């Protein structure tokens, strides 16, 4: 599951292109979109998400006592593998 639509600004993505093999290439105009929204440091795996799709880095999940600061849902149990793949490319 990707982050909820409110987490990634719509105008932060300028171009999405698919090549012949089906791989996607995405260009971000705002590189901060790949930062943890809590500590503002670049995201590193593991990245977790709450049930509403808000993301946080591993250390921040512990700092907020596994409660999403955006919606108060539990966070730190469900990995966000899609974002992890993006940050590992």
TrEMBL record:
Organism: Artemisia annua
Name this polypeptide is given: TRAF-like protein
Occurrences of domain RING-type (ranges): 36-71
Keywords: Metal-binding, Zinc, Zinc-finger
Keyword Transcription regulation: no
CDD domains according to UniProt: RING-HC_SIAHs
GO molecular function, one term: zinc ion binding
